[in-house]
Amino acid sequence: MPMTMPTFTASTRPSDGVRDALMWAVAEVEGTLHPGSIDESRYLRSRREFSVRRGSTTLTWYFSSSKWNLTGHGIWLHRGMALRDDRLGGWRSNHVDRATETGDFVDHVRLDPGGDTVVWQPEGAARHPFADHDLAALPDTLISDAARAFDAYAEPLTAVNAVPVTHLTAANVAAFGELALALDRPSEAEEVLRRALERRPILEEYVRPIAERLGLASALPHAGRLEQRST
């Protein structure tokens, strides 16, 4: 039976508001997902973590209370996202001499996630500058998050093009390259590294050692050419 969206008052403690808001939103998402779109979901209430799994890939939201939360003043909820992939974890454990990290972590997902959720604020109060949707919209927001993340990270080369350029780092570029190797696509791994450097040449000094460790150094342009190309 569907849960009723909770309501809050000026006397609601922020911790209680966040707890009840998340329990409702998670139940709504789990009841709305189309069969086959998600293989598994799990909510860890004590850690405020909600995960959905599709195939070998797991997307996890990490929820936290806004630092501005105050009884009688307002309750807001912040969320961050992270992606993990079993295939990456398996490749890393089987190639410890080449892997740049251990485990299955791929990336912190930063696909313009939008602002915080307004759980409650006094009627007539101006919207908090870091919030852009009310609690009623949170389930649909999470469903949209999942659809965009699974699409953007569906393939290593898709991911390196989807990540905002300012969030391309040596760590996620390495993970995308390693995931391509885990899929037995060495040519795609090479293209991942090349494309990352085309998009953000400043990473060259960090990506070159990664390419050497992965056995892909020959795929990169000679040192210095990236700077000449970008000027």
Can you give a write-up of this model?
This protein is α+β, with helices and mostly antiparallel strands and 231 residues long. 41% of the residues lie in helices and 19% in strands. It has helices spanning 14-32, 86-94, 138-152, 156-162, 170-182, 186-199, 204-214, 225-230; strands at 40-44, 49-54, 57-65, 75-85, 105-109, 116-120, 131-134. Strands 1, 2, 3, 4, 5, 6 and 7 form a 7-stranded mixed β-sheet that branches. The radius of gyration is 21 Å and the shape is elongated. Mean pLDDT is 92; it is low at 226-231.
Gist of the model:
With 231 residues, the protein is an alpha+beta fold. The protein contains 8 helices and 7 strands.
> Structural class given helices, strands, pairing?
alpha+beta
Q: What is the averaged pLDDT score?
A: 92
- What is the H/E string? HEEEEHEEEHHHHHH
What is the overall number of helices? 8
Helix content: 40-55%
Beta-strand content estimate: 15-25%
Tell me the major beta sheet.
Answer: 7 strands, mixed
* Uncertain runs: 226-231
Shape: elongated
How many angstroms does the end-to-end distance come to?
A: 61 Å
- The beta-strand count equals 7
Rounded Rg: 21 Å
